[in-house]
């Protein structure tokens, strides 16, 4: 059996348009991948209409027939769609609805649906059956990550006589039994087993553990420990994560390379492959990710290519360009200087108080040089013109963010410069809104309003829009308010 190689897409947090997913399927196949993990349920929403749970799906969600059509399209390209149904944590897609509100454990950042309530189990039994009837995949991913429970009266009562580990293990075995009864194999995230609570000793060994760790210098210790317990391991590095959001760089790419190399680990269990996660689509522009997706694909298949070699192959295969050395250097440079979370949010929100003005100026110059190099090559593009244009303009927008931040960090008393930057910012905002409408659904309320107030930092468009309102240089500047 060949190893699983592919990407995870997070449609639950923000659904992309139908064409994007077909493009991603074609791209995956052309890049040597064979799998897409479809994360279609989470606190923020559900992008599949369940026959047995009407009104749970979001606006623009896939109907069962639409999903079957997409699955058939993927299979024709050699791509398997594995569904991920959140069965315990990340379950506000259910408990936000009045008919399931009584099953909510708590309403903090991490929550759960009550694992001991009989209605929870009846509901999950129906949803798993729906998923199995729609997706022919060998596997069903059951989530089971980032769980906080104990707030529901029934769970609080159960905790008087049983530990959290016992309750979690018993519920996990219930989910496992249901998936097995449907003739499928179960995948779960590593979160709860990684807490060294002995949980793995209470679980069936044919559960596949999806091991995610997102730091560049990650060790193989966790994956090896799971293997030594006899479980199958699916390695899950991160392309877009909490720590590197807008563009994958020297945080994400080394993580992918390192995690992918652990496919050679041996133990009582075996490594099934590697699957790179792409979290929270409100963070990034989709058409900017194709180069990094290709780099990730090359790392997962272990072909030993350097960053420059992967990017050169991408430009040839995706855009029909044999890149010049200058273009290739510019593309590599994007990854080398892509900001991590603190710096990125500082420049995005127009709050660079803790950043060095000289560093900001240096980065502004670097991104401007990249922008010019990409612009100089635009006439060479033979395919995927829109994607190249988006990537090119993104580098120009990054140059603008750094220039604006350098101005603010230096506290220059130059109203004329500030007004010019605000006016330029409005032009970039118009472009970003057009890109949103191309890549997602224009009527999605997440375009201007976060689902939860505590996740505001994950929204590229909203934060940039708010920054222009905050940084308006004069009373005459048009106000920019959230709709």
Describe this structure in words.
The protein is of the alpha/beta class. Helices cover 45% and strands 10% of the residues. The protein has two domains: 301 residues, TIM Barrel (Alpha-Beta Barrel), CATH 3.20.20.80; 157 residues, no CATH class. The chain has 16 helices and eleven strands. The strands form two sheets. Strands 1, 2, 5, 6, 7, 8, 9, 10 and 11 form a nine-stranded parallel β-sheet that branches. Strands 3-4 form a two-stranded antiparallel sheet. Helix 8 links the parallel strand 10 and strand 11. Helix 10 packs across helix 11. The longest helix is centred in the last third of the chain and has 26 residues.
What are the defining features of this structure?
483 residues; alpha/beta; TIM Barrel; 2 domains; 9-stranded parallel β-sheet; two-stranded antiparallel ribbon; 45% helix; globular
Describe what is shown at a glance.
The chain has 483 residues and is an alpha/beta fold. The chain has helices spanning 18-30, 64-76, 92-95, 118-134, 153-158, 164-181, 221-228, 252-261, 290-300, 307-319, 325-337, 341-348, 357-376, 385-410, 415-439, 460-471, and strands at residues 4-9, 35-39, 41-42, 45-46, 80-84, 139-141, 185-189, 208-212, 232-236, 238-240, 271-278. Helix 8 (252-261) runs parallel beside helix 9, helix 10 (307-319) packs across helix 11 and helix 15 packs antiparallel against helix 16.
């Amino acid at each position: 059996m060949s190893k699983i190689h592919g990407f995870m897409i997070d449609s639950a947090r923000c659904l992309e348009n139908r064409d994007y997913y077909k493009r991603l399927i074609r791209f995956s196949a052309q890049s040597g991948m064979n799998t897409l993990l479809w994360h279609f349920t989470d606190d923020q929403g559900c992008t599949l209409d369940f026959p047995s749970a009407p009104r749970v799906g979001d606006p623009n969600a896939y109907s069962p027939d639409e999903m079957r059509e997409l699955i058939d399209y993927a299979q024709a390209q050699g791509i398997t769609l594995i569904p991920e149904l959140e069965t315990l944590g990340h379950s506000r897609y259910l408990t936000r609805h009045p008919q399931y509100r009584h099953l909510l454990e708590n309403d903090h950042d991490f929550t759960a649906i009550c694992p001991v309530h009989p209605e929870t189990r009846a509901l999950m039994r129906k949803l798993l059956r729906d998923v199995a009837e729609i997706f022919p995949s060998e596997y069903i991913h059951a989530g089971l990550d980032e769980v906080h429970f104990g707030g529901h009266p029934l769970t609080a009562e159960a905790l008087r006589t049983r530990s959290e580990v016992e309750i979690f293990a018993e519920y996990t075995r219930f989910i496992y039994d249901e998936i097995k009864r449907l003739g499928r194999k179960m995948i779960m995230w590593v979160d709860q087993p990684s807490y060294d609570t002995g949980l793995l000793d209470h679980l069936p060994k044919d559960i596949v553990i999806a091991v995610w760790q997102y730091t560049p210098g990650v060790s193989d210790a966790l994956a090896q420990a799971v293997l030594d317990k006899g479980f199958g391991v699916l390695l899950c590095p991160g392309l877009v994560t909490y720590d590197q959001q807008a563009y994958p760089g020297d945080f994400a790419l080394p993580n992918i390379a390192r995690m992918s190399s652990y496919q050679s680990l041996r133990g009582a269990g075996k490594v099934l492959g590697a699957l790179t996660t792409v979290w929270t689509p409100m963070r990034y522009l989709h058409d900017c990710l194709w180069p990094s997706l290709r780099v990730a694909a090359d790392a997962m298949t272990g072909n030993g290519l350097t960053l420059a070699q992967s990017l050169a192959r991408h430009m040839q295969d995706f855009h029909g360009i044999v890149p010049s050395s200058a273009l290739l250097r510019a593309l590599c440079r994007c990854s080398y200087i892509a900001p991590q979370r603190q710096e990125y949010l500082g420049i995005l929100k127009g709050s660079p108080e803790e950043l060095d003005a000289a560093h900001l100026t240096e980065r502004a110059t670097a991104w401007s040089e990249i922008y010019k190099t990409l612009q100089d090559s635009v006439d060479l593009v033979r395919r995927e013109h829109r994607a190249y244009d988006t990537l090119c303009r993104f580098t120009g927008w990054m140059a603008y963010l750094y220039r604006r931040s350098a101005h603010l960090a230096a506290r220059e008393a130059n109203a004329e410069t500030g007004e010019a930057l605000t006016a330029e910012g409005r032009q970039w905002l118009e472009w970003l809104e057009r890109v949103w409408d191309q890549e997602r659904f224009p009527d999605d309320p997440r375009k201007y309003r976060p689902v939860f107030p505590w996740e505001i930092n994950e929204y590229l468009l909203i934060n940039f829009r708010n920054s222009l309102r905050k940084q308006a240089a004069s009373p005459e500047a048009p106000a920019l308010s959230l709709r």
